[in-house]
Amino acid sequence: MDWILWVLPLALIVYMIIAGLYQRRHLKTLTEEEFRSGYRKAQLIDVREAREFENGHILGARNIPLSQLRMRHKEVRQDQPVYLYCESGMRTVRAAAILRKKGVKDLYNLKGGFKKWSGKVKKGNK
What we know:
The chain has helices at 2-26, 32-38, 50-54, 69-72, 90-101; strands at 28-30, 43-46, 57-58, 62-63, 82-85, 107-110, 121-122. By secondary structure, it is an alpha/beta fold. Strands 1-6-5-2-4 form a five-stranded parallel β-sheet. The chain is elongated and about 55 Å long.
């Protein structure tokens, strides 16, 4: 049974490496400067929940929460780049996997997410 103590952590490490490689292959993470230079020519999608979006979002972003993305994926055009962001960058990885399965190929992620964004922000009316 001691071998289980070695196999499980090793399997987890292998999974994390494979997931990281998959992510880099299908989702390009951009610095804020790179993100800024391209998002106006793309679809800018905030995958945070509606209340987070209302509290502030990148100017020009459209809100399609991760929790609704499977149902609303047809709102995302496949012929244009898609710039995704969430609060820290974790949800965008899941969002990209969903969109990738639906045929969207040109996917980008904001490194560090909205909490690291220093550009223009639109605040909600509340």
